[in-house]
Amino acid sequence: MRSYLAAAVQMNSVPDLEKNLAQAEDLIDLAVRQGAELIGLPENFSFLGDEDAKLAQAEAIAQGSEKFLKTMAQRYQVTLLGGGFPVPTGTGKVYNTALLLDPSGSELARYEKVHLFDVNLPDGNTYQESSIVLAGTQLPPVYPSKEFGNLGLSVCYDVRFPELYRHLAQMGAEVLFVPAAFTAYTGKDHWQVLLQARAIENTCYVIAPAQTGKHNARRQSHGHAAIIDPWGLILAEVEEKPGVAIASIEPSRLAQVRRQMPSLQHRVFI
Predict the structure, then answer these.
(1) Which terminus in the chain has less CB density within 10 A, N or C?
(2) Looking at 43, 66, 112, 237, which residue is catalytic?
(3) 94-149 pLDDT per residue, tens
(4) Is 204 among the catalytic positions?
(5) What would the 3-class secondary structure string for 99-160 be?
(6) The one catalytic residue among 66, 113, 204, 237
(7) Rounded to whole angstroms, how far apart are CA atoms 173 and 151?
(8) 54 part of the active site
(9) Which residues contact 41 (CB under 8 A, 6 or more apart)?
(10) DSSP-derived 3-state class of residue 222
(11) DSSP per-residue codes, 162-203
(12) DSSP H or E segment with residue 26
C-alpha cells in the first residue's frame, strides 16, 4: 500500500441511463484531473427512479453499466467502483451489485447487496427494496490491492450492520467503500455518525460516494459524500450538489491510528 488520492463521487441520478452515465463521466473526469487514482461511484449511479421501471429496463441498465465502468477504468487508467446497479438474476428480480474494476477494465471484486432497505419512515415514505431486489447471500469481499490497500466492499443500508464491517476488518480491510443513496430523512441524522463509527471501530479509511437531491417526485437523497480517516475525521466532503470529495489515503496514518488505538487486537468476542 502506498499514499494515493481517492475520490468519492456525488451524483444526482435520475430514471435515464444515458443521462446518468454522462454525468458520471464528467465527475470521473473531474476527479482524475485532481489526481484521483481510486474512484467510487454511488449506489444507483446509472439509474435511480421508479422500481418497476428499473426492473423493466434491468438488462439494458446492467449491460450499459458494466460496459461504462470498463470503458471509464481503461480510458482514465483508474481503479473504479460502480457502487450499485441492477443485475438480473433470472428469478424476476435483480441483485443490487457493486463492481470494482482495475485500470485494464478487469473485474477485481463483485458484491451483491445483502441488507435490503424495507422501511416505513416517519415522513410518510415507504421503501421496499426487496420488491424487486434479491438479497445477496455472500459476505462482501476484501480485495487485496498492493497499491491501494485491502479494499472492503459494502452498499448503503449495510452501514447500519456493524457485524458486516467487523467481518471485513477480520479479513484485513484497510479501506471501506460505502456507496449509498441515503434518504434525505434518515441521512440528516444518521449518515455522518454511522460512517464515522464504522471508520473508528475498525480503524479503517471510509470512502462513501453518495446520491444527492431529488430524483423524482417522491425520492430525495441526503448527499454529503465523504472520505473519513481511521480516527473518524472527515477529510473531504461534498455537501448538497453533485461533485467529488477527494482526499489522500496514507498508510502511515493508518499505521499510526492502529498503533495508538489497537482495538482490533483487543477483541474478545470474535
Answers:
(1) C
(2) 43
(3) 999 999 999 999 999 999 999 999 999 998 889 999 999 999 999 999 999 999 99
(4) no
(5) EEECCCCCEEEEEECCCCCEEECCCCCEEEHHHCECCCCCCCCEEEECCCEEEECCCHHHHH
(6) 113
(7) 6
(8) no
(9) 9, 11, 24, 28, 80, 81, 82, 83, 179, 209
(10) strand
(11) HHHHHHHHHTT-SEEE--B--BHHHHHHHHHHHHHHHHHHHT
(12) helix 17-33
Residue 205 dihedral angles phi and psi, to the nearest 5°: -70, 145
Non-local (6+) Cβ contacts of 181 within 8 A are: 13, 42, 43, 44, 48, 84, 156, 210, 211, 221
Task: Decide if 146 is catalytic.
Answer: no
Q: How far apart are CA 44 and CA 158, in angstroms?
A: 15
Number of helices (H) and strands (E), helices first, in the chain? 6, 16
Annotated catalytic residue within 37, 54, 156, 237: 156
C-beta of residue 182 within 8 angstroms of C-beta of residue 210: yes
Q: What is the pTM of this model?
A: 0.97
Give dist(CA 101, CA 38) in Å, integer: 10
Do 23 and 42 meet the contact criterion of CB atoms below 8 Å apart? no
Whole-angstrom distance, CA of residue 235 vs CA of residue 228:
5
Cell of 48: 435511480
Look-up of cell digits 477529510:
235
Angle at the Cα of 180 from the Cα atoms of 59 and 244, rounded to 5 degrees: 105
Extract the C-alpha cell encoding 197.
Answer: 463509527
Is-contact 154 176, C-beta < 8 A?
Answer: yes
Q: What is the rounded distance in angstroms from the CA atom of residue 181 to the CA atom of residue 179?
A: 7
